[in-house]
Amino acid sequence: MSFEQNLFFSHCDDSAECLAIRWDCVDFQNRIIHVNHTLSDRPDEFGDCSKRMLPTKTAAGTRDIPMVQEVYDAFLMEYEFQSVLGFCDEEIDGFTGFVFCTGEHKALHPGAVNRAIHDAIDSYNEEEVLMAADENREPFLLPSISAHILRHTFCTRLCENESNIKVIQAIMGHADITTTMNIYAEATREKKQEVMMNLEGKIIIRPERSDS
């Protein structure tokens, strides 16, 4: 999974929304991804953990997400790869053509995303510890990160660059505007502190002292 595809994961409510994306949800012409289902393998009332397609958690979760250039390029590259290597051939509740699939052409399990993130972090941290020891310095270790943290980070960065709360709510799929507002307030508070720190020493103009 590429960095750009991980970027798309950050838009979604959780990895279950992303893994439910099929190629017919990806509108390359209009550069939009239609989010309308989640893929779950949690036990049902009978304890069955089979994969199944479910509606999004809320009506707001069913939404259209515009693709930035990096995401568009990543999905286009993935489509070209699968055109050669083969598309996902697993059918789940009548749905086929899942974008995120294994080398065996099966849809990924929802837990696979966080495992991939954790494996990448562990690999980096192990290498960083060795490099830091060789360079006689303290290692810079990454904390534990999940797909949900990526989503929260994306929302924070979006709030720092976009003032239209309704647009942010629509992109994130927040059912309650309060959720958007809380993250927005947190992001803008940090941004205001940063701006004011940058102004330090630049606002007050002190008159030059006369030598006489």
Task: Give a description of the structure.
- With 212 residues, this protein is mainly alpha-helical.
- Helices cover 48% and strands 8% of the residues.
- It has a three-stranded antiparallel β-sheet, with no helix packed on it. Strands 3-4 form a two-stranded antiparallel ribbon.
- Helix 1 packs across helix 3 (69-85) and helix 6 packs across helix 7.
Counting helices, strands and paired strands, the structural category is mainly alpha
- Rounded to the nearest angstrom, the distance between the terminal CA atoms is 71 Å
How many strands, what sense, and barrel or not for the largest sheet? 3 strands, antiparallel
Shape estimate: extended
Helix and strand sequence: HHEEEEEHHHHH
Give the strand order of the largest sheet, numbering strands 1, 2, ... along the chain: 1-2-5
User: What percent of residues adopt helix (DSSP H or I)?
Assistant: 40-55%
Low-confidence stretches: 1-11
Helix segment tally: 7
For the CA atoms, what is the radius of gyration? 22 Å
- Mean pLDDT, to the nearest integer, reads 85
Compute the number of strand runs: 5
Strand content: 5-15%
